[in-house]
Write a structure and sequence with these properties.
Blueprint lengths: L2 H19 L8 H12 L5 H14 L11 H19 L8 E2 L2 E2 L1 H5 L1 H18 L6 H15 L4 H10 L7 H11 L1 H15 L3 H28 L2 H4 L5 H4 L5 H25 L6 H12 L4
Antiparallel strand pairs: 1-2
């Protein structure tokens, strides 16, 4: 199956689940539900849930959307956490972004208080959705894995260091820490959760978790490059925000050429890492897609 067709079909399946779990926008208080819907349904690639599906199907050696019914809640929980993180990332006290996915960011459309509460609501909802996993032991384990990815040891920890180093010339190891936690932790959780639901062997789990961490790091490095030389259409937000917010980036620390070479090496090393895993075509195709984002 072509990567585009796979992403399209799995994206539709994720969105059917999200529409099932989110309350309608005419619920009281309407501004809260409107803000939640705006954050979740204003576009987005659904990368984390789709990579979760890809890993789960790889482990089962069967590309069949009908087999995903029992793991749909896990995929939706991943996307709800991601949507919540983007709302909070865009706030004036964080990245101060007016545009998200070529639309007004949540706080620009609904105000800062409603945006904060919508982010909190989506984050809380993610864990509620995980209670829909039928196997009680797996449900609890999924809550544990996702909460760890969000926690001070993961996404929130990375965001904190990102905020605290704004305006400071960060060392490369600090920059790597930020993106491994802020971006990589949730991507890694998509693999951990797939392995949990598919009862994967420990060595396979380790390879897939490293795959996700590397994908997240390479993607972030490329985004740093595109923030300097890309366009709003490519980024889904205004370019140059990192410089305006005095953020440390790989492009700033390594230079554009150094950042490109680093991203390409990470991707090439990751190819070798997942090569032994059977039925890995979608995961390999996605690596090729990420590599193609590297500007010439």
């Amino acid at each position: 199956m072509k990567l585009e067709d796979y992403f399209d079909s799995r994206k539709k399946y994720v969105e059917r689940g999200l529409k099932k779990y989110l309350e309608p926008i005419n619920m009281y208080p309407e501004v809260l539900y409107e803000a939640m819907h705006h954050a979740v349904f204003s576009g987005g690639k659904r990368l984390r849930p789709i990579l979760f599906f890809a890993a789960y199907e790889t482990l089962n050696q069967n590309l069949n959307v009908r087999s995903l019914r029992k793991v749909q809640p896990v995929a939706c929980a991943l996307e709800l956490v991601h949507a919540a993180s983007l709302i909070h990332d865009d706030l004036p006290s964080m990245d101060n972004s007016d545009i998200r996915r070529n639309n007004p960011s949540c706080h620009k459309k609904f105000g800062v208080p409603a945006a904060i509460l919508a982010g909190d609501a989506l984050l809380t909802m993610a864990f509620e959705v995980l209670t829909n996993v039928k196997d009680a032991k797996k449900s609890v384990r999924c809550v544990e894995l996702l909460s760890r990815a969000v926690s001070t040891r993961g996404m929130i920890g990375g965001q904190t260091v990102d905020v605290m180093t704004t305006g400071i010339k960060a060392r490369l190891n600090v920059l790597k820490y930020i993106h491994q936690k802020k971006t990589g932790a949730l991507l890694q959780a998509s693999m951990s959760l797939a392995c949990e639901m598919a009862d994967a062997a420990d060595n396979t789990r380790a390879s897939l978790e490293m795959y996700a961490m590397n994908v997240g790091l390479a993607y972030q490095i490329i985004d740093d490059i595109l923030d300097e030389i890309g366009t709003t259409d490519v980024l889904g937000r205004e370019p140059g925000e990192d410089a305006r917010n005095d953020k440390a980036t790989y492009a700033a620390v390594l230079g554009l050429e150094g950042a490109k070479k680093t991203a390409e090496k990470i991707i090439d090393d990751t190819y070798k890492m997942i090569k032994p895993i059977p039925s890995n075509e979608i995961l390999v195709s996605y690596l090729s897609y990420v590599k193609d984002r590297v500007p010439i």
